[in-house]
UniProtKB/TrEMBL annotation, chains A, B, C, D, E, F:
Gene3D superfamilies: 3.40.1190.20. It comes from the Bacteria. It holds the Pfam family PfkB. CDD domains: KdgK. This is Sugar kinase. Keywords: Kinase, Transferase. Belongs to the carbohydrate kinase PfkB family. InterPro entries: Carb_kinase_PfkB-like (IPR052700), PfkB_dom (IPR011611), Ribokinase-like (IPR029056). The lineage of its organism: Bacteria, Pseudomonadati, Calditrichota, Calditrichia, Calditrichales. Residues 2-241 form the Carbohydrate kinase PfkB domain. One of its GO terms (molecular function) is kinase activity.
Length: 259, 259, 259, 259, 259, 259
């Protein structure tokens, strides 16, 4: 099955080891993003995958394309043009010092994408699944419009649509998010969320323990899933749970509400 | 003597050794710029120097400040604020392959500087020299205005003003450059130029051999210097000459027209 | 136009900088080979290219595939199987010390290729050019047989065939080379050679100055080209000339005898 | 508030990762020391700070100065001269293998400091706090004398004086330490100590559990603080407690006995 | 006391940090092997040690020799010749991803050793201990024969012989292992084993809990030791126990059954 | 033939690439010295060699020993003890910027060597050659005395003695050098020198062109050699000539006066 994802791929510049921004005399270079990483992982696991975005026509845009196709991702629908590739700088935390991220993603090529330049129908012709996250429509109106075209085309082609709500407070407010995300839910078959996402992106409020204290209220999560399913008619709801035991240790679990 | 310089300091991200953008898995990190480098060099040689710019309030802006004051440059007049630090990416050439630069400097903090926020009179009170280059006013109207305030304050304080014309075709056209640069020449005591700068930034045309072929017509250069001095009333004109012998070998010479 | 190349791609492990094998505590990793490099370069220049080889089913084989498709080379006809990827170790020379290469390529996956497992006809259906070098048949009888199948299929498909004679004394003697290479010349349209290749691989002897002394006898080279063209009916002969000025400096020139 | 610290800043050469001295082909370079690190941290937190020491007139001394002023520390009172910068070599432990330190600090510039060359009164004029540790007087008689001049000047200027006892067995015996440290306590307002420091540097003995076993006897610590406060008239006593859970994990806590 | 060990020393190429084979652009270089590591460790602890193997006459073979003698191991009995040094590639695991090893050791120099070329009697003349592991005879008949010569010579010289059974499923089946290992036990004084080794290499079966679950049945281990001692007449049996708590944390314990 | 050399081996810490002391965040680590390098090179060329020095009992001393014996040098006569290993820091020059060296070799272990602790007679029993340089006696009286013991023992054993005068102005004045070196010449069979060495170390003055300008007066060199041979009765005199063409390019030649 071919899986299509759509979003931003950014240049990540991270300080080596635990060194700080102000000490670093080199940055490690990676290209990635939520939706691009899904495409790469699925290709590594042996599935066919395609990634759609817009990248500048310079060597940094090409480097992102090369990374993707090196992993076997179909990059033939990526648009080229625009001003720059989005960048974020990462400093890994240590003991009490938390990790820091500096975003420098404004004016990126994908934020000015014209969705009409992508041949969505051709893209979904042999696809079985379309995956996107809440980051994509948060990048601005051009991305939101392109995403809606993608969803409509995916529905026409009968492919399953999954969405990871993935609320990002640096990109928009809960109010802005809900205005954009709620209408888009009508396209979604599989919804991936956690409690905060459901609250900020869709306005759902259910008390579910204190996540920061690592205490998970399973019943509240199940109730969140049931409510989401009922309100938006999702076929499947997946809730991922991360316990923060310490800066370098997390517990992972997940809850799947299927038909 | 304290020397003041004003301009943009950028984050330079360069591929290690001769590796290409598309191969690099890390970038070497430096902070620099024409005017900042002059301030650092003079401090290394034992003079007092101060650098004026505007940098974002994040750690990358702070890293640039720390680099400067580490070398002993006075950074107390640097403004903090704005969106981002300008970036450029550098890939060093090898044999027939030329070096490549990708600029990502639009929307930088300094490009939106408000010159009224700098206390120019305090800055020049104990200064003997003010140095700027043609890059600074090419960064846009806010920079041009700030530069004019700086020149006016420097003149009021009686400090010598030097300008390296430094024409950059990626930033403006000759026509735009001349409209901005010609009026600013009235402030300049010492003008640093090469033939191309004089032509593109000030509209001066004197034939001086084929620089690309490494052939230098000394008399034509001397004539350029005399014409510049006469037309703009400079006290001193310095012309720097670089012969391109090969990708990794250059010949350097210079001509000084004083008095 | 799509260009197909066929040969071995090896893991190159080189000491960093000018360090010696006995000092190195790390090796730089690259994947390459004469024919693979041509496919990568053509893809970088914007042509379509495909590379055929056999690689083991482990991660090192996959890394070679990923590098190729990252550059846009079609790897869909690469066979997977066999014992190991060929390796060579490289130590770069400095001043009087020459570079050293340790080959560890015996028993490589491609050396046991079964040419019948490649669908040559499908491969050449939309191709315009097939390129190989004298290294491929020197890897042993299975490679020679596969190469002959490739040449026959290319001819059936009407694609141009080019061969870089590329004599390698570590792989075979001149006598062995000539027995294999001479019959294969009947498939070749474009022959790339230098004086030594023509002599060792095809038995041609024409005096052409002392290459080691950097003195090039142009007329002798032209005579070599004319003789090759006449004897084997090549459409085109290209002779590449490298002058060894010093360990780190070479002069490059070339001679093309076209129709 | 400006904080002044006085002590030795050393060149730290550490093996990368967990590699051992005998394997390392490079050392990571840092400049630091107990008192210098306090000055740097306070500057990072936004306070004004100044550091006093003596460094050789070579580039290694200058590199230490540049590091300090890069972080915003006032280095204008640092003396230059003497033979060498103190060095220590560090190999980080792993699993059962403990970390190792090789000190090479004898004959360092600061160990021959002439305290009369520092203008202590000017230094403390606008300062609010003076911090030193038990390492400084342990570096020999010149350092002890300079420290006493510093304490006297600080008292004259009415600045608060804090001392971290910081007993170092590689530098002196408990008996030597007590002869030097006890008289200096008359200058101290704020004393920072742990049980071992109080015992070795000041001769105080109070049983407080087995620190190596990570068992902390809170009452004994409180008694230590009360006894120190009473005996030396400190305004404040701070006791820092480190539990050694394993080679890479520690528990930190602290106890403050204030007025 | 001089300790002699005999086996294969390989070139280990490992990806830096936690990077994967497909991402690595360099490999860290080490030379090691079970028996070589014992010789190096004993030399580090101050004993005399000698290592016997066969290495190719190239620089990689020499680098292995240099590493050994750098640590003080006697390498004067190492044979030189053969095709290649055995290689293995290592990728260190992280969280759920396990470590991966790719062996490329076929056709190594030592696998074709002729035991008659080693002067075993001279080697053991001043030795007190001979140590080998089950890896050595698993490398093929030439190694098995050389090992038997070594054991016979060691016995003639009256030196203690220890064997770490060390069953490796990538090298042979339990059946092949038992046919070779059982007869060799007659030479062994000190046997080092774990439960799996005893079962696979010698055919011993005693239930001893589920090692993978980290549960150790001490009594079953003691019984294994007693049975081994009785069946083969060992003077001493050592059983090493490793509990796998997680990918990066192990518990180590051991059991010694001595006279 | 076994060659013995005696001198200091130092820890060299060099900045990577062309980076400056003040920029370097790591130093490359090497162990070497004039006499140690001769021993290593001869061992690499297949001769037997032994090196005598004194090194501290810490891991840095051991690392130097390991490096030497890794290359096959006999280190069994090296004394262990003393305060520290001598260090020098190296910054490689680039274009107009010259290389810089910071010596930190005072108080090194070898500078306090007691020559009576070396069993010189045993050392020279099977040796054919003893080599030393003018650096060794310049390290102070203990080294001078040890060197004289070495020369006397070498003469008793009938081994050839060579000396590279190697005048170092950072270690002593010409006057000091001549007082020490002239008497030692009575032991020397083979003298290696250049014009400056002969002048500074032995007081010989013969005009021989301007070496800095790269102009070599061959006849003056020959005269230097003849004079040295006559005055001190050397069997052989070797003069090495280095022309400084530029910072990174030198011309090498040599003159041998034998018999």
């Amino acid at each position: 099955m071919k899986v299509v994802t759509f979003g931003e791929i950014m240049l990540r510049l991270s300080t080596p080891g635990f060194s700080r921004f102000m000490q670093a005399d080199r940055f490690d270079v990676h290209y990635g993003g939520g939706e691009a990483n899904v495409a790469v992982s699925l290709a590594n696991f042996g599935l066919q995958s395609a990634f759609v975005t817009r990248l500048p026509e310079n060597e940094l845009g090409q480097a992102a394309v090369n990374m993707l196709r090196g992993h076997g991702v179909d990059t033939s629908h990526i648009l080229r043009g625009g001003e720059r590739i989005g960048i974020y700088f990462l400093e890994t935390g240590a003991s009490q010092r938390p990790s820091k991220v500096i975003y420098d993603r404004a004016h990126s090529a994908v934020s000015a994408i014209d969705g009409r330049e992508v041949d969505w129908d051709a893209l979904f012709r042999d696809a079985g699944w379309f995956h996107w996250t809440g980051i994509t429509p948060a990048l601005g109106e051009p991305c939101r419009q392109a995403l809606e075209m993608a969803c409509a085309a995916a529905r026409r082609a009968g492919v399953t649509i999954s969405c990871d709500l993935n609320y990002r407070k640096k990109l928009w407010s809960p109010r802005e998010a809900q205005q954009v995300m709620q209408p888009l839910m009508s396209y979604v078959d599989v919804c991936i969320a956690n409690e905060e996402d459901a609250q900020k992106s869709l306005g759902l409020t259910i008390s579910a323990g204190d996540v920061h204290k690592g205490q998970l209220n399973m019943e509240a999560y199940a109730e969140t899933a049931r409510t989401l399913k009922k309100r938006y008619g999702f076929k499947t709801v997946a809730i991922t749970l991360r316990e923060s035991r310490s800066a370098s240790e997390n517990g992972w679990s997940a809850l799947l509400l299927d038909n």
